[in-house]
Amino acid sequence: MDPAHPNWAGGRYRCGPVMQAPTPYVEHQKAVTIRNDVNLKKESLKVEPDEENPGSFLVSFTFDATVAGSITIIFFAKESEDCNLTPTKSNLPPVTVHFQQGLGQKFRQPSGTGINFSMFEETELLKVTDLDIYPIAVKAEASPPNQDGSEGNPVSVTTNSQITQAIFEREKGEFQVRVVKQILWVNGLRYELQEIYGIGNSVEGDLDGNDPGKECVICLSEPRDTTVLPCRHMCMCSGCAKVLRFQTNRCPICRQPVERLLEIKVNNGPEE
Prior knowledge:
Layout: E1 8-9, E2 12-13, E3 27-30, E4 38-40, E5 46-49, E6 56-65, E7 69-79, E8 85-87, E9 95-99, E10 102-108, E11 115-116, H1 122-125, E12 133-142, E13 161-171, E14 174-186, E15 189-192, E16 226-229, E17 233-236, H2 238-244, E18 260-263
Parallel strand pairs: 3-18
Antiparallel strand pairs: 1-2, 4-6, 5-6, 6-10, 6-11, 7-8, 7-9, 7-12, 12-13, 13-14, 14-15, 16-17, 16-18
Catalytic activity: S-ubiquitinyl-[E2 ubiquitin-conjugating enzyme]-L-cysteine + [acceptor protein]-L-lysine = [E2 ubiquitin-conjugating enzyme]-L-cysteine + N(6)-ubiquitinyl-[acceptor protein]-L-lysine
Domain RING-type: 216-255
GO molecular function: ubiquitin protein ligase activity; zinc ion binding
């Protein structure tokens, strides 16, 4: 070896400066609360036999409404701009039913307005490759409050709504319904609803206050209020999340890459 080599000293090479990988940084955001006036409980959506019309099936579900409004059932619906839903089958016109304010309401499509599966090929009913058209779409629309414009001019009011899009599945010889997407249309903006894993443990309710599922998986003491995106695990408190975002870009639960951290403050008290 050449003793004159700049990195040669005492019979061995000196190590040069170690190049460290840049510290990962993950964006941390706070969630914005959006009021949802009508909410269809997606796990309750199903089709039931129409006793008065053998062979026909009716859409039913449970929903909550803080205001009055209307529900529209559209079969084989195509979504266009501004969350407009257009039926693609002329023999299945949309059905609209008005409702009043109330929680835990049961909706059942009027008899005689349902779908007869025998009218369609099974491949057509179960087709899921082209989700531009949804076999079932439910639009729950809140009625805007009555407002009078000044000097006789009407006030333009934006109607808020929730849209539930579902597909048919066949199980044990019977058709079942599975929700694939829920959308909020609020003040002219479209929001797609995503389920957050673990948020139920962060909401005060019947669970024991010592339930370990409520605490941050990092510090094990503070309540969870921060969700990892895109995997949607609500597993950390905001304090640990702010530290973690400079140290790693992996979710503590599933180890998937983290794109963003979303802080969600759950308000269990009455609305102001």
